[in-house]
Known about the structure:
By secondary structure, the chain is an alpha/beta fold. It folds into two domains: about 5-150, Rossmann fold; about 155-215, no CATH class. The chain has helices at about 5-25, 40-45, 70-80, 85-95, 120-135, 145-155, 175-185, 200-210; strands at about 30-35, 50-55, 65, 100-105, 135-140, 165-170, 175, 190-195, 200, 210-215. The protein has a five-stranded parallel sheet. A three-stranded parallel sheet has the order 6-8-10, with helices on one face. InterPro entries: Eut_put.
Amino acid sequence: MYSQTLIDEILNEVYKRLEDKCNEQTSLKKLIFIGPMPDVGLKYLKQAYKCSVYKNSEESYEGIVITKLTIEMLGHLATSSPVTEEESLILKALLNEKQVYMLEEGIEYRRYKENAHKALYTLLMDYEDKIKNYGIQCISHLDELLNSAKSRDNHKAPKPITGNVNFDMTYKKLLLEADLIKKHLEGICSVTISKGCIITPLADDYIRKHHIEIKRV
């Protein structure tokens, strides 16, 4: 028969391991999936992220993975005209500079490439380019999310660009802080954007902090 002391020690160790496991799960960054949850690659992804299918009123999350991008959703996102809660969540995520990914195999319009009218297919291709310009990244496999997370963790700040340098970003519909950090602008410099380009609050703060001149054309 085991002594009560030994039993207590075993129970304490079990409780401690359960608590550590719960804390580990809680500390994982959350990814929201819009569309079916894929099987391939999900096992390894769950080691770095807490993965869940979209539910109403999502608030705290690291990023979004779109596994099924319908033709309707593509059009709504490209024209910034959300109809569903999921589409609104995606646009708000982009405005808050959160990571948004779309799985390549889930892009519906590409399935009609062989039979679609050329003009319509070209329009949908333009829509895809638009949402990419907004900040949505296209991935082939879920493994790319792990590589992306590692690259962000190991990212080293590039050498600052100083001097009177102008960057042409007139192709951008939405100017993100990430766009400016990528160029790592400092000192006297300017960025040219289109008149209709939207500047996110974080990008606006970065512009003021680094004294960047914005030119609209």
